[in-house]
Amino acid sequence: DGTTQHLATRGTGDVLGELSLLLGHPATVTAQADGAVSVIEVAQGALMEQLRSEPANSGRLFKAMAVALAVAV
């Protein structure tokens, strides 16, 4: 309906949209920067192909995500 609501404030090094990316779901929120930012956009298909071709990276990625999500809570 066009209304906005502040959900969280993120800082340097934070990641957004990681669960949507991994689960292949569309994003359900948008983000608005309060200043200059650098963005790295990761295509879901490219990420999944990389993880399939190098399974050891899957474990490292999921461990990093678990740590990041645990800290965010």
Topology:
Blueprint: H1 18-23, H2 44-53, H3 55-72
Helix pairs in contact: 2-3
Could you explain the architecture of this structure?
47% of the residues lie in helices and 0% in strands.
Q: What is the percentage of strand-forming residues?
A: under 5%
Number of helical elements:
3
Spans with pLDDT under 50 lasting ≥5 residues?
none
* Chain-averaged pLDDT: 83
Order of helices and strands: HHH
Number of strands: 0
Spatial gap, N to C terminus: 28 Å
Task: Give the biggest sheet.
Answer: none
Q: What is the radius of gyration computed over CA atoms, rounded to a whole number of angstroms?
A: 14 Å
Helix % is: 40-55%
Shape: globular
Overall SS class: mainly alpha
Q: What's this, in brief?
A:
This protein is an all-alpha fold and 73 residues long. The chain has helices at residues 18-23, 44-53, 55-72.
Keywords:
73 residues; mainly alpha; single chain; 47% helix
